Amino acid sequence: MPATCGGFLHVLLEFARHVCAPDGAAHAENSPGSPLPLSRGLADHEGTVHTEPDSLAEEALGARTTVERYQCTHALDPRYAGTLRDHGLRFTAHDDGHPRIAELPGHRFFLSTLFQPELADDTSRPHPLVRAFASAAVGRSTET
């Protein structure tokens, strides 16, 4: 299950609502008055992303660091990362200490990124995460 940019935040929001079950969890961009805004502002950004060892992110990217681009207006508010982590979500890549990739252990390809891999594509060589997702989908289709 890939999700990027706003999709990353909606993955976190749905995980918070249905697994962590806090009252009032919302996306600050859509519900600025929420008592529990999971997101906060983020300007267009490019940064070095560091992956965690033994993660799907590291395996798919084939590297411990990568430079990625964002066109998002919001990111996860770091005050809520611990709650999501305590309920089973794993943050496997960070940019300046802030979560940029989330994975759900035990799932074949539950990987969500705040950065946008498609911004790095040059049409001749898809981003490693796009290739990893396609490979996982092909692998799944041959199992059934």
The CATH class assignment is Alpha Beta
User: What series of H and E elements makes up the topology?
Assistant: EHEEEEHEEHEEEH
- Detail the poorly predicted runs: none
The tally of strands reads 10
Question: In the CATH classification, which architecture applies?
Answer: 3-Layer(aba) Sandwich
Strand order of the largest sheet: 1-10-9-8-5-6
Biggest sheet details? 6 strands, mixed
Might you state the CATH topology name?
A: Rossmann fold
The CATH superfamily is: Class I glutamine amidotransferase (GATase) domain
Quote the beta fraction: 25-35%
Would you tell me the structural class of the helices and strands? alpha+beta
For the record, the count of structural domains works out to: 1
Distance between the termini: 18 Å
Question: What radius of gyration results from the CA coordinates?
Answer: 15 Å
Query: Approximately how much helix is present in the residues?
Result: 25-40%
InterPro entries: Class_I_gatase-like, CTP_synthase
GO molecular function: CTP synthase activity; identical protein binding
Protein name: CTP synthase (glutamine hydrolyzing)
What's this entry about, in short?
This protein has 144 residues and is α+β, with helices and mostly antiparallel strands. It has helices spanning 6-20, 56-61, 81-86, 128-141; strands spanning 2-4, 25-26, 36-37, 39-41, 45-51, 65-70, 74-76, 90-95, 98-103, 111-113.
Explain what the structure shows.
The protein is of the alpha+beta class. The protein has a single domain, classed as 3-Layer(aba) Sandwich (Rossmann fold), CATH 3.40.50. Helices cover 28% and strands 28% of the residues. The chain has helices at 6-20, 56-61, 81-86, 128-141; strands at residues 2-4, 25-26, 36-37, 39-41, 45-51, 65-70, 74-76, 90-95, 98-103, 111-113. Strands 1-10-9-8-5-6 form a six-stranded mixed beta sheet. The protein has a two-stranded parallel ribbon with strand order 2-3. It has a two-stranded antiparallel sheet with strand order 4-7. Strand 9 (98-103) and strand 10 form a beta hairpin. The mean pLDDT is 83. One of its GO terms (molecular function) is identical protein binding. Residues 25-53 are annotated as: Disordered.
